Amino acid sequence: MRRAQARALKLLAVRDRTEKELRDRLQAAGFDEAVTEETVAWCRRLGYVDDARFARGWVEHRLRLSPCGRVRLEAELKEKGVAAEIIAATLAEMLTPETEERLCLEEARRQARRLAEAGEEGRRRLAAYLARRGFTWEQIRTALAHVDSPSDKDYNTPECT
């Protein structure tokens, strides 16, 4: 049991983990199921493992460093073993529809510069990129409309001078 606890603490020192991630890593290290469950419960009692805290940290990190939409965040958290009700509560608290639309528009503007030369193919590639980032089609349509609007175009181009 002490070896499993030491291993759990070592894993948690590297980064925060969900209960599922910790359980999987301990079982992969060769600890039997009873010892693994007891160790995960011990970590939970001490506050070392908290799926709600993990979800908040994950969403905050993703929105700051690699913005994506609700769909992708839900999938990532589900894959990490976070319960659906925790995911829903975290996203409701941290990701408003306005924030998500702003992030989609920012990503569209950033990527549009790279794809501007490709014309309609660039638009399709941009829409696909935003969809992979987890934004809804409605948000993507809105972002594409803003990117295509004259206010977002560079006025230093030859036809504008």
Describe this structure in words.
This protein starts with a helix and ends in a 13-residue tail after the last helix. The protein has three domains: 2-45; 51-95; 98-152. Residues 152-161 have low confidence and may be disordered. α7 crosses α9 (137-148). The chain has helices spanning 2-14, 19-28, 33-45, 51-65, 70-79, 84-94, 97-115, 119-132, 137-148. It contains nine helices and no strands. With 161 residues, it is mostly helical.
In short:
With 161 residues, this protein is mainly alpha-helical. The chain has helices at 2-14, 19-28, 33-45, 51-65, 70-79, 84-94, 97-115, 119-132, 137-148.
Secondary structure topology:
Layout: H1 2-14, H2 19-28, H3 33-45, H4 51-65, H5 70-79, H6 84-94, H7 97-115, H8 119-132, H9 137-148
Helix pairs in contact: 1-3, 2-3, 4-6, 5-6, 7-8, 7-9, 8-9
Alpha-carbon distance between the two ends: 74 Å
Which strand-content bin applies to the residues?
under 5%
Number of strands: 0
- Largest β-sheet summary: none
Helix-strand pattern: HHHHHHHHH
Number of helices: 9
Binned, the helix content reads over 70%
Helix and strand composition category = mainly alpha
How many whole angstroms does the radius of gyration measure? 21 Å
**Cα shape:** elongated
Count structural domains: 3
